[in-house]
Amino acid sequence: MISISLCMIVKNEEDVLQRILSCAKRFCDEIIIVDTGSTDTTMDIARKYTDKIYEYEWVDSFAKARNFSFSKATKDYILFLDADDIIDDKNIGEIIKLKSKLESTYDVVTMKYITATDEYGNPTFSFKRHRLVKRSRNFLWYGNVHEYLAVNGKVLDTEISIIHKPTSINKKDSNRNIKIYEKMIKEEVEFTPRDLFYYANELKDHKRYQEAIDKYVAFLVTREGWIEDNIRACIYMANCYQILEQYEKEIDCLLQSLSFDIPRPEVSCRLGDLYKKRLQYQKAIVWYKIALEKEAENNMGFQLKDYSTWYPHLQLCVCYWHIGDKEHSEYHNQKAKEFRPNDKRILSNEQLFMRK
User: Fold this and answer.
1) Is residue 170 part of a domain?
2) Residue 169: pLDDT over 70
3) Is residue 248 part of a domain?
4) Which residue segment(s) compose the domain that 9 sits in?
5) What does pTM read for this prediction?
6) Which of 67, 135, 308, 328 fits as disulfide partner to 265, beta carbons 3.0 to 4.6 Å?
């Protein structure tokens, strides 16, 4: 059986830290906490679970802090988690099983990271992360913000899920990341393609839409981005143009994403929405059907399940109704209901079908 070191970096996490540590103690052989300047009871909570607590002076670099935490690990494999993550009983059981059967030839284990769920608990946004790594490989983190772990070797892909679940109390500085990027600009630090992409995301989130578009373009021009980031850049640019009411450019960006790979369900639905808005229902139907087809083989890519499940079915219900095909309209409404049984729109459609 392998042994696991949990490595975490924290700051002012008193509202969530006990929640994740109570999960981790069930399968981790060592818990390492690196505190970057807490002023609340975070350290007191951590001491209930481990004596391996280290204070670390924050230097505006998540990668450096994570690398410091990794340097303190002593077990076979290193697991990283954030304080506002949770792991349910089912997935804790899967990790315990993994510990007992994982062959030491594996260098990396991927797990699913669920960052958003709907009211039914269904994942709406998820992606895979290199979550468990062999300590002897000395893998390192890179990037001041939105850091990534550079890995190679033999990889085991799993469906084990970790859920990101912040509390309603949000003590995070919403300007923290953009401040770090703008400090890098001031210090004339050369941005990597990844930096450009995530800086553009921060600009978008801060409603600086034209600046965000410029950075997405600069990112794509490098032609060095990860394929999934390239596609997201096109989608996010389309979002910016939509808000700026430049709809033709919105379409151009969505279509540009097709140059990188087969259509992602989100892109297909967005194009379907645009045709539906123009009352071109037959064309909209084509795109919604594409969204329901088999997704691209992008195990590490972003998955927005709404766009490949209930949403295109609901829109197909509307489109078929408008072209007079009641049978297909009812069929797709029922398929949407399988995912959202209490959705008022779907129930209202059922009433309409009965009246007609």
Assistant:
1) no
2) no
3) yes
4) 4-164
5) 0.90
6) 308
